[in-house]
Design brief:
By secondary structure, the chain is an alpha+beta fold. The chain contains 2 helices and 10 strands; from the N terminus they run ββββαββββββα. The strands form 3 sheets. It has a 4-stranded mixed sheet with strand order 1-2-10-7, with no helix packed on it. A 3-stranded antiparallel sheet has the order 3-9-8, with no helix packed on it. The N and C termini lie far apart (about 65 Å).
Length: about 170
């Protein structure tokens, strides 16, 4: 195996910058570790709320926190962590796995050199309107929500559009 990284940061059509394969990658391969500062849940919640408020005014996505366990999270926002540039996709070719207290990005399927590395962020639908999705996948509902909640969101959006049309009459 080469010492060369399997991925690099480059321009993305999904959201400004993204992570791209520098070579062909086989399904099941460990691609990159998500690294950062280990922080308590209380600190994680404080930072996430602060950054979410900033994101509402700037439109930037600023929360780069991964859950490690019931007590700890990893904040990958600062320092050398190219994995933080991975974008969401409703049809991800990767997944983030917690392997003995480390977060690793793993290929879900074979990936070709130059292909963008993406995964499902797994957001809950609680605040789905705050998280528009631009992944362009066939099954995308237009918002970043985990797969098991996309049908609910699709139904809600359909109802909102119907109600909006009725009010416009």
């Amino acid at each position: 195996m080469s010492d060369q990284p399997l991925c690099k940061v480059d321009h993305s059509s999904i959201h400004q910058r993204g992570l791209f394969a520098t070579c062909d990658i086989e399904a099941g391969a460990d691609i990159i570790q998500y690294v950062g500062e280990k922080i308590s849940k209380a600190e994680s919640n404080r930072r996430a709320l602060e950054w979410e408020e900033q994101a509402r005014t700037t439109g930037e996505g600023l929360v780069y926190i991964f859950e490690l366990d019931d007590e700890w999270d990893i904040d990958g926002r600062l320092g050398e962590n190219p994995a933080r540039y991975m974008n969401h996709s409703c049809d991800g070719n990767c997944e983030a796995l917690n392997c003995e207290g480390e977060i690793w990005v793993v290929a879900r399927k074979d990936i070709k050199q130059g292909e963008e590395l993406v995964y499902d962020y797994g957001y809950d639908m609680e605040h789905f309107l705050d998280h528009p999705c631009g992944c362009g996948a066939d099954q995308c509902v237009g918002y970043i929500v985990r797969e098991d909640q996309r049908k609910k969101v699709k139904k809600l959006i359909k109802g909102l559009k119907k109600k909006s049309k009725e009010l416009a009459k």
